[in-house]
């Protein structure tokens, strides 16, 4: 499984290399209501920059794939 950012109905993968930066930027944007550029990967595998507006995002889900899912073997 990959690390993911989910906002509403949209979802992107987060590279392992960029994960710490993305987590920090999303937290700061949500706390301060600011706009940040996030380096993410779309569903075709292309690297994209997503503009994330912490002022209007009600929620953001950061799935960092830290633990196995119930259907996965550890």
Features:
single chain; 74 residues; alpha+beta; three-stranded antiparallel β-sheet; two-stranded antiparallel sheet
Give a description of the structure:
The structure is a single chain. The chain is built from 1 helix and 5 strands. It has 74 residues and is of the alpha+beta class. It has one domain. It has a 3-stranded antiparallel beta sheet. The protein is globular and about 30 Å long. The chain starts with a strand and ends in an 11-residue tail after the last strand. The model has no long low-confidence stretch (mean pLDDT 91).
Give a brief rundown of this model.
The chain is of the alpha+beta class and about 70 residues long.
Helix and strand element order = EEHEEE
Total beta strand runs: 5
Largest beta-sheet characterization = 3 strands, antiparallel
Total helical segments: 1
Largest sheet, order of strands side by side?
2-1-5
Rounded to an integer in angstroms, the radius of gyration calculated over CA atoms is 13 Å
| Low-pLDDT stretches | none
Q: What would the principal axes of the Cα set say about the shape?
A: globular
């Amino acid at each position: 499984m990959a690390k993911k950012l989910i906002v509403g109905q949209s979802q992107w993968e987060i590279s392992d290399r960029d994960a710490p930066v993305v987590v920090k930027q999303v937290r700061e944007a949500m706390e301060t209501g600011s706009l940040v550029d996030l380096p993410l990967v779309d569903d075709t595998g292309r690297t994209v920059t997503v503009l994330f507006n912490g002022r209007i995002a009600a929620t953001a889900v950061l799935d960092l794939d830290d633990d196995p899912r119930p259907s996965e073997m550890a």
